[in-house]
Amino acid sequence: MPASNNKRLRFIVWLVAMATMLVGMLTMGRHASVIDTDFMALLPDSERSPLAQLAVEDAARKMERRLLFIIESDDEQQAKAAAVQWQAYLDNWEFVTRIDSQRQQMQMFELLFPARYQLLDSSARQWLEAEQHQQVTQRALQSIYSPFSGVTANELSQDPWLLFRNFSNQGAEKNRFSLVQGQLLSNQNGRFQFFIQGELAASPYQFETHEKIQHLMSEASRLQRETGVDIYYQGVGFFVEEAAAAAQSEISIIGGGSLAAVVILILSVFRSVRPLALCLFSVGTGVLSALFATVVVFGSVHSFTLVLGASLIGVSVDYAFHYLSLRACTINAWRPHSAIQKLKPVLLLGLVSSCLAYSGLGLTGFPALIQLALFSSVGLSAALLAVLLIYPQLTQSPAQHNPINFARAIHEIVERYGSSRFNVGLIGLLLIVSAFGLQRLEFNDDVRHLQSASERLIKHEQAVTALTGFDQSQQWLVLLGSTQEDLRQAEQELENQLQDFIKKGTISGFNSVHQFVPSTALQQQNYLLSEQLIEKQSADIQASLGLDRIVQLPEFQAVTWQQVEQAAAGLPYLAGQLEQGTHYSIITLQGLHPDSTINGLKTDIPGVQVLFVARAQEVSALMHHYRYQVLLLVAIACALVFGLLTIKLTIKDAFAVVTPPLFACLLALAVPGLLGISANLFNVVALLLILGISLDYSLFLRFHGDQVHSTMAVLLAGITTLLSFGLMGLSSNFAVSSFGMTISVGILASWLLAPAIAGRKHFRKVIQCPAS
Length: 772
Description:
Protein name: Membrane protein
Subcellular location: Cell membrane
Shape: elongated
Structural class: alpha+beta
Organism: Paraferrimonas sedimenticola
Low-confidence stretches: 761-772
Number of helices: 28
InterPro entries: MMPL_dom, Mycobact_MmpL
Main location: membrane
């Protein structure tokens, strides 16, 4: 086949592949968001039972759409006017459904009032069980004759003992807001607060939702400025939007910074636009291929993967630098295919070694790292294929600018440094510093330290929690059973124990479905007690109140949670049924210290499984486990890479190639200890990437260290890599900044150590290379 036809065929194949992936990405992105911003999606599932995991996820999905707003002012009328405006805004916006508290209360009244004789408050139940029926009557009379009771004649005729009123007030004792003229109003800390609830029409993790939430926050700020009130809000959506905005900004800064650095370097060294276009071509191929493969395998790509993966793919420009440097430094006739044959063995060996190191990320079982391993390995492979297959076709002519003097100057400096005694002392100093830092190193595996919410959002969340008592921390008792009735009875048994924990100060309170809807068995018991009350006290209450007729006990009809859930949305109770048929309910615990647990709680209830779930604690424990696992994988990866190199190289050469990355890893891990800051899992994960990136420097300086083009390429690669990962240190995400700092130190150390170890006594022709 003629060379021109072969060139055309390669271009056609490449264009078809790129077009296919691009169309695939656009198609998948049209049906669902391909960028995931859920921080918890990065983390592994806990080791609890699968059904409990499903229950927690189902409950979390119900909670994630909730939005809570507090409008506060010193002046009640001012706060009320702002609340009315905000309610009107939410009502006119299809993206948020406002929960109408007045309508909700009416719906609940219509459902529960007919069942008033089977819904007893704890005091009434205790009196009736003790056959102190007159106490119920006496309490009712005291309330009726109180000037502030607000009891109507219609209410007395249907519920003379005020059973429903007292049952409702029992739940309202911990509710800090009262319904006044259709508004939930409270007076705390000398100020007036109006409470408004809403629900998002779509998941907060959908990409389209972020813009809507941003608009919502802007409107809240505008209303606050115009009315002079304080507006606080709480909800998962606000944190997701902030994280998404930060990720987009950082992707632009880190990716844009890396790109700008590459552009400046290429134009400064090669003095031509063609090398720049070639670099963008190979990097773009890598990014698109990695993005497509990740979305196909995982269904989406996380913003975390995009930030880190984009920088790792940026390392793929190293392959382009080696080829372009050889082309620019070739004095005699330029033969591109001969150049590729010269570079291919070391480039392929470097790729295999890097992918082998990155594959260690995938062996951890950590979702974030598995995705990053695939993204990086596919991207680097695609970028190298672009260099090997397409570059020769696009560079038939010699370079227009020949930076041979610049390359020789760099080579001479590196050669003197690599063969001097100074580097021996430098190696010893780095090892001593590393030992000192490692001795002081401390780890903090608490996942909450990795979340980087702004002080503004934290202030909002704390304010809403303090005023409403709604704690968003996921510290739950998860109950699993065959029916909701079994769960109600189990909740009743657990509530008696939880009251003791409140008295001890372990928790400040709890919410359960049973507090709102008792079990059918308890409703039947209450019904029988009410029957005795009517029998014993109906004549007395009728005479005292002058009622026209004797109270009649209505027919018993159990109220179920399903009825309540359908009647009123937005209740702070969590229960449901999984697809497998298992029912679940959740008791949310309030005021429990983040690192505490419910020790001594008896959860051995027949037919019901009870689990204590503290998601943050569980994930932190898993991160502790994975940290040790990744450290082991680093050691295994070093051994595997060494073994792979010994297949093609001598043991001495393999040792010289592996040692700089290994020493660099030790120094990088020691840096947090030297700075007096805690390290985390992502500092350890960075070691695998240091190993993968640094191997290229060692390989080229070991086997092409005698050639000026190789030294220049390694310098350019080191600079771009440092800029890429150095910018990560500026990230607001603590995981990303930890990652970037560790890799930056490791890359700098490996770049300094590679000439001293891999290139030492080897700035001579180890492999004879033709001029071109």
